[in-house]
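Ticket #4471: structure export looks truncated?
Reporter: QA, pipeline team
Priority: medium

Steps to reproduce: submit the single chain below to the structure queue and open the exported record.
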Amino acid sequence: MNELDAAGIRSPQLRAAYTECRRINAHYGRTFFLATRLLPARARPAAHALYGFARMADELVDNPEPGTDPAASLDRVGDLVDVVFDGGTPDDPVLVALADIVRRHGLSRDLFDAFLKSMRADLQPVEYRTFAELGEYMYGSAAVIGLQMLPVFGTVGAPADAEPGAIALGEALQLTNFLRDVGEDLDRGRLYLPLNELAAFGVSRELLEARRPDPRIRAALAYFVARTRAVYRRADAGVALLRPESRPCVRTALTLYEGILDEIVALDYDILTRRAVVPKGRRLAVALPPLVSVWTRETFRGGRRLRS
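Actual output as written to the record:
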């Protein structure tokens, strides 16, 4: 069954909006998009819409169009979010889909305000002294994404019980991105690895910017990888609190993203001038068995409906 039909999305305007979000997800977020294929068909459009909104804001900051003002562009997004929560109709397809998701799942305005606050923090040169400071940024840039997704995944008990796992899910993926993209972030004037933690290994921002192999950098990155793996364990512990049909998606996302850490180790932490990428073959090996299971289940159910 078509995902939009399964989700009960009938309006031509909404179908076009969700289709655009799906395109954005497939283009920019291959790993997450692959994981969304493991969600029930009815839940996939919501996942695409939430990803589409986050990516739209992220692109305005990281890759602004020439001649545009990223701060003004973010302000416009904030204005559109105001329209969404005031019950109006935005003039952007991504926000049209987002408005529908907010209505369907009762998402809190605070989650989107926190997200945009963190996006604005990236408009200036970035560095954080401690994990506590970084945590404030990550709440808006990562934790709220997990919390936004929680109603889409569904829970087997009280949603509040599953929130710590959802927060850990967002943080694990974000911390992995910080490690994978450390070289690219330095090019943008950003450093998300806390300075105090780096200093404990004798590493400074200047040493990282030199981009030369150094045992101190290797030791520091090994520490950050180990610390991030601990966050993955917290996220994995929360999977059991999600609805059973959503668990394969989340477990696959966790496995694929943690695979980036494995690739960083395989590169002997030499990631300042190159990007650690999980090979396509490994991604398929992880995702294919549950994908076949989902396809079989949905095909069987579809056949049963037709026979009935």
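Status: closed, not a bug. The export was complete when the record was re-opened. Leaving a note from the reviewer for reference: The first helix runs from residue 3 to 6.
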